[in-house]
Amino acid sequence: MVLSLLYLVYYHSNHKRNQYSKNRTHFILKYYRATLNTMNTFSLLFMLILAVSFMLQWYLVLRQIRHIHRHRDQVPAAFREKINPEEHGKAAAYNIAKSRTGLVDLSLNTLLLLVWTLGGGLQMLADFWISFELGEIWTGSLFIIAFMLVSGILSLPMSIYQTFFLEQKFGFNKTSPRTFVLDLVKQCLLLLCIGLPFLCVVLWLMNTSGRLWWLYVWIAWFSFSLIMMWAWPALIAPLFNKFKSLERDALRKRIESLLERNGFASQGIFVMDGSKRSSHGNAYFTGLGNNKRIVFYDTLLKDLTDAETEAVLAHELGHFKLRHIKKRIALTAILSLLSLGLLGWIIEMPWYYEGLGVSTKSSYMALTLFLMIAPLFSFFLQPVFSWMSRVHEYEADSFAAAQAEAENLVQALVKLYRENANTLTPDPVYSAFHDSHPPAPLRIAHLQGMSS
After folding, report:
1. Sheet harboring 293-297: ordered strands across?
2. What phi and psi, each to the nearest 5 degrees, are found at residue 356?
3. How do beta strands 243-245 and 269-272 pair?
4. Which of 45, 231, 253, 428 is spaced 20 to 30 A from 61 at the CA atom?
5. Which of 172, 170, 179, 320 is nearest to 242 (CA)?
6. pTM for this structure?
7. Is 403 in contact with 258 (CB distance < 8 Å)?
8. Does residue 424 sit in helix, strand or coil?
9. Residues 20-36: b if buried by 16+ CB within 10 A, e if exposed
10. CA dihedral (352, 355, 359, 363) positive or negative
11. pLDDT in tens, 221-258
């Protein structure tokens, strides 16, 4: 369908109207009828959801751009003593530029989704691997890996632009071309060394476990996820960044006292060379069980005092103490179980494959299609997930205010907003869909209310 549309656009652009004969017009109409006849109700539903999702996302981004532009010359009252108009203007320009780039990315991804599905891209890729006669599991695993690699290659131009042009323009990029290429190579090797064996296991379960395959796949996926969370800090993250123990003794004592008061045991407090790729700052907990680590970006420690750093860590610790991480893992587990259960039902339905432009009915094709279209349908639930995340952020802020002075966290957040050029004036509707953290003015007001 997509390829036929492209053909007709080309044809119309290269021929005058008076050159059309009745026979040619009849042929085109007949071709379209045949194309439409191959589409079923699910095709129409897919295109409807895709169109609505695309237009809604476009509308939200335009709202965001207009809202930021409208407020770019006036710093919100809560920040006027800490952020000057020039810094506020830079943040506005940066976020507007990111939003416009996001519109291009959205358009390209939507087009690629159509080409992969109704345009026949997935079927062509499947036919290529089927021709080698490797068997269902190996064919499927290599098909999915190839799809992921091709998708990654197609997304490279946007990634290069965002890194070396957009981030560079605003002074945030620190990634060298060599680091960029090495990161890609490492990611591909990890995909082959870890992703390929796991895909073989998943497809083996899908093909040999009977009608309850989706339950066994869920157990395998959830177990794999927990293992990866446990292994990431010590085995995988060091492939991309260097980690060294925190050397600031006064700060270390503050942090150790905070952790001791809250019964948090970790494998160490580390500083990561975040400045190797970006000037943006952050801090996070990583790992699982007895393999937990506390990680600070070196860019964060450069800008914050010891008291402010402690307050930021207290916020992150709040997520742990208030069981936010466990709740998120549980929610992800439940949603993934429901999703696999749904896939277990539709995998046998011919309309599922035909409606998405493929003729190969197989476990690997069903899984790939599901992973591609699921975000379209889940996008409409995004405000719910964003709301839940913002509730957790408020709770973690309250916890931090009880462990360290609220004003220290306020000062730290203001510095982070300034250094990362986060917008202080997001559009409320856009924020409801996309922002996992409360808007800056609301978050600061919440903290100041606890310190007064």
Report:
1. 243-245, 269-272, 293-297, 283-286
2. -110, 20
3. antiparallel
4. 45
5. 179
6. 0.86
7. yes
8. coil
9. eeeeeeeeeeeeeeeee
10. negative
11. 999 999 998 888 888 999 999 999 888 888 888 888 88
